[in-house]
Amino acid sequence: MHDASPWLAPRWGEAPNRTITRLVERRIKQGAWVHTLTNATAATLADILDTDRIRVAPIPPATVADASRDDLPVRLAGRPYVLCLGAEKRRKRLDAVIRGFVDAAQNDADIALVLAGAEGDGSSDVVQALDEVGQVRSRIYRLGPVTEAKRNALVAFARALCYVSHHEGEGLPVLEAQGLGIPVVIGDDSAVAETSGGAAISCDPADVSSIGGALRTAVNDEAKRAELKASGRQNAARFTPERFLDDMTDIYRQATNR
Do 153 and 207 sit in the same domain of this protein? Predict the structure, then answer.
């Protein structure tokens, strides 16, 4: 199970995924084990499913290799930007990020905000937030879905990544950015905080000024940026294919009593 969203979706206005919840609950009663990605998600699933047969094996991030500035949108050429990566779902809190960016942009005439991801149930909130930002709107780029090459370039050349989503399973974009030495801003999600290993700037996604302050620090505080560059890379290095293989092998051995 990547995360507990099939059960928790009503908290952000979505219908629960009954197909998944019923299947998993039936399999648990039949003795199945659950693989998930963080201890935070494991604890949530343990409460929901009432089982101790849940084990954690974090997935390593994809390697962002051979990124080229040529794959960036022309309008971003040479311009620093904060990147938000992922579909426009309510739980991604992109409307809050947009309003927080307006707060941060008041003292920075160059920084841009980039939203890259498909439309989702939060798209109407994104549109409403964009309609409210005034002149800063010209510095916010809503790209929609992007190719793998463009995605890699957006991550590799970002000034910072903003990932304040909640009810995530792991938060792989955080690790991708950290592995490249890019500062990351996160919210209050326990799984993402666990994945970040403390090598990120935290904010309160319910507080626009908190988001704005975190973005200003990630973009402009060179001492903090240098600290996060080192600590982020060190944290991302913990998530390797070898570790994942060992963790999964251990899970299978426990499940089969070997």
Answer: yes
